[in-house]
């Protein structure tokens, strides 16, 4: 667990396997509606049972998620703001990756994370309605070398 002593912000992160597993489950859930309900590997990230990420998401305000952009072989950063129920996406290669491609890559995260959190009761004190919102952050430094 990481806590910023100045702001009191509590944040954790996932690994790249989390992103790959989310997409795999999302693709299978299009054919089989109960895939997410039966998922246990991803649930272990949320509950803190996945080593080395052994902290329950209910203990945090934010989760940082690396997202791999397959077709461009680049990484972008997803920032899941739990309290505000949205994912901010940071793309430093805006000339290389279009917004529509980013939204396509984030859609599995939105879908699977929201269903897993609602099912798991990890966030016991919070109740969320509606989809997990995604926001593309524009006012950030960008790569200029390609």
Give a short summary of the structure.
With 146 residues, the protein is α/β, with parallel strands linked by helices. The chain has four helices and six strands.
Query: In CATH's first tier, which class applies?
Result: Alpha Beta
Report the sheet with the most strands, covering strand number, pairing sense and barrel closure.
Answer: 6 strands, mixed
Strand order of the largest sheet: 1-2-3-4-5-6
Structural class by sheet pairing and helices: alpha/beta
Give the helix proportion (percent range): 25-40%
Low-confidence stretches: none
The tally of helices reads 4
Please give a structural write-up.
With 146 residues, the chain is of the alpha/beta class. The chain has a single domain, classed as Ubiquitin-related (TATA-Binding Protein, 2-Layer Sandwich), CATH 3.30.310. Helices cover 31% and strands 22% of the residues. It has helices spanning 16-29, 35-38, 43-47, 99-120; strands at 2-3, 10-13, 62-69, 74-81, 86-90, 133-137. Helix 1 (16-29) crosses helix 4 (99-120). The longest helix is centred in the last third of the chain and has 22 residues, at 99-120.
Task: Give a quick set of tags describing it.
hydrolase, Peptidase_C48_C, globular, protease, TATA-Binding Protein, 146 residues, six-stranded mixed sheet, alpha/beta
Q: What layout of secondary structure does this protein have?
A:
Layout: E1 2-3, E2 10-13, H1 16-29, H2 35-38, H3 43-47, E3 62-69, E4 74-81, E5 86-90, H4 99-120, E6 133-137
Parallel strand pairs: 2-3, 5-6
Antiparallel strand pairs: 1-2, 3-4, 4-5
Helix pairs in contact: 1-4
GO molecular function, one term: peptidase activity
Family: Belongs to the peptidase C48 family.
Keywords: Hydrolase, Protease
């Amino acid at each position: 667990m990481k806590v910023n002593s100045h702001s009191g912000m509590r944040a954790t992160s996932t690994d790249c396997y989390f992103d790959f597993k989310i997409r795999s489950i999302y693709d299978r859930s299009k054919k089989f509606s109960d895939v997410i309900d039966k998922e246990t590997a991803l649930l272990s990230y949320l509950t803190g049972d996945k080593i080395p990420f052994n902290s329950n998401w209910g203990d945090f305000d934010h989760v940082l998620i690396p997202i791999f952009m397959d077709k461009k072989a680049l990484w972008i950063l997803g920032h899941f703001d739990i309290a505000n129920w949205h994912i901010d996406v940071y793309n430093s290669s805006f000339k290389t990756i279009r917004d529509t491609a980013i939204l396509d890559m984030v859609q599995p995260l939105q879908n699977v994370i929201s269903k897993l959190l609602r099912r798991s009761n990890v966030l016991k004190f919070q109740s969320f309605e509606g989809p997990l919102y995604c926001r593309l952050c524009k006012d950030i430094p960008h790569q200029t070398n390609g």
